[in-house]
Amino acid sequence: MSRTEKSLSNFKYSFLFFLLTLVLNFYSRKIFLDELGIELLGVNTAVYNIINFLNVVEMGIAVSVSYALYKPLIDKDEKSINEIISIFGRFYRIIAKIIIVVAIIILFLLPMIFRGNENNIYYAYFGFVIIGISTIIGYLYSFKHIIISADQKNYIVTQINSVCKVIKIILQICGLLYLPYYKYEVWLLLELLFSVISIFWLNKTADRLYPFLKVNLIEAKNYGEKYPYIITKIKQLFFHKISAFVLSQSIPLILLYIANVELVGVFSNYQMIIMGITALLGTVFSGMVASVGNLIHDTKNALNVYWEILLIEFILVSSMCFIFYFYANFFIDIWIGEQYRLDEWSFILLTLYLFFNLIRQSDIFLSAYGLFGDIGAPIIELILNLGCSVILGKRYGLPGILAGMNISLFLVVFLWKPFYLFRKGFRASFMSYIIKMISLISLSIISAYAIYSIGSIKFNYFTNQYIDLILSTIFNYGGFVILQFVVYVLFFEEFKSLIYRIKNILKK
């Protein structure tokens, strides 16, 4: 299979499983709210974010190892593959031990973190322990499957994780609806159970696909000297990972500090929508990381591919933001009730946050090139992120927190990372990126205004609000995408070239 064919295969499986799990996730969230309430949802969200903060210890090891695996996989160097995977497994065992120690310390701090929510402290403890155990087991045993992703077979990982997730969610819904007691406890125990199942399933799959794979965790400590660049990349990625985790996990915790668990719960509903969108696009483009990694090692055509990926990404991102802005609140109303809506300013800033958070095509190429040496950038992003969010959050609440996030995203993700990529990777003019982005943003705004001006198509022919919402979304999304597609074909040669290649692949 060619790189394009493998990326399309990754997308096909990702999209199908995404739709299935998306519907189940939203239905289970509604049942969770109906059965357990907004306060417990807020506690659950905060606990997950605390655990996710512990994952910063991972320090980008997976990305570094994936980068190190590209060339051995191309060369079919089984010895090097085994040694690199062994190093990966050893690092993950060390991380598991660190997380155990830090988690024990946090256990003693939970009453202070959840001050004012003493009625829910039992659930905070139980949730933290169960989710923590699940995380630790993941680090102890979940390392073999990285070879599957690095070998451009991420759709297999998606399939396994999605099957486990679907069965888990169905059982969780049944537990909430039919169990008289211990509903939250069963909910969490199912999370742990299926996390373990997916880990061992992935490991067995890796063993079957790569029968030569022999991990030696004891000898792994002697392999480090042979692959010093892995350690170098990990050190560089450490700061990037800290910044990324703070950005993705800090809003609920800052809200918990400034406001209360109820607002954390309300925000988490919007966060769930954003995570769904981000997960879809992230899975689609993660299938391209290995493609780009191989591309960089065997061709000089990387810049042309960058423009093609940028155009695809911009159509998807701009259309997602368009639909999010016009339909997210309506969806919240019919999903869980208008009492769970955010205020207007928070919603506008959240849409902008979604846009900046999704425009990450440069990350794909930075990972593939192994360009993580700009450790000053994530440090500045971290300071801007926390500083602006806390200061503005205390004064303006959630809108202030989101404004702080957007400031750091704009300066670092939108401007600095592309600049660094063009300077160190492509060795091309950064102004070409600026001109292209201005063109894309301008055309997207014009397209959005055109669709909005002719009137947002709404269906009111059915008694079921969900059907009305789905049809309205499909028609308006379709109209926006078609308009964008036509504009891109007219204005961008790279897009026409990409469409031609995809057309030839589909004819096979």
Keywords:
19 helices, 84% helix, 508 residues, mainly alpha
Spans where pLDDT lies below 50 across 5 or more residues: none
Amino-to-carboxy terminus distance? 12 Å
Instruction: Tell me the structural class.
Output: mainly alpha
Helix content: over 70%
What can be said about the biggest beta sheet? none
Subunit arrangement of the protein: single chain
Element-level helix/strand string: HHHHHHHHHHHHHHHHHHH
Layout of helices and strands:
Blueprint (H helix, E strand, L loop, with lengths): L2 H34 L1 H17 L6 H15 L2 H36 L7 H21 L4 H5 L3 H25 L4 H27 L10 H4 L4 H31 L2 H38 L3 H34 L8 H15 L2 H9 L6 H21 L1 H29 L3 H24 L11 H27 L1 H15 L1
Helix pairs in contact: 1-7, 1-11, 2-5, 2-10, 2-11, 3-4, 3-10, 3-11, 4-5, 5-8, 7-8, 10-11, 10-15, 10-16, 11-12, 11-14, 12-13, 12-17, 12-18, 13-16, 14-16, 15-16, 17-18
Keywords: Cell membrane, Membrane, Transmembrane, Transmembrane helix
Membrane topology: Multi-pass membrane protein
Subcellular location: Cell membrane
Summarize the structure.
By secondary structure, the chain is mostly helical.
Q: How is this structure best described in words?
A:
By secondary structure, the protein is mainly alpha-helical. The chain has a domain at 1-212 and 219-227. The chain is built from 19 helices and no strands. The chain has helices spanning 3-36, 38-54, 61-75, 78-113, 121-141, 146-150, 154-178, 183-209, 220-223, 228-258, 261-298, 302-335, 344-358, 361-369, 376-396, 398-426, 430-453, 465-491, 493-507. The longest helix is centred in the middle third of the chain and has 38 residues, at 261-298. The mean pLDDT is 82. The chain crosses the membrane at residues 12-28, 48-70, 91-114, 120-141, 162-180, 186-203, 238-258, 270-293, 305-328, 340-359, 371-392, 398-421, 433-454, 474-492.
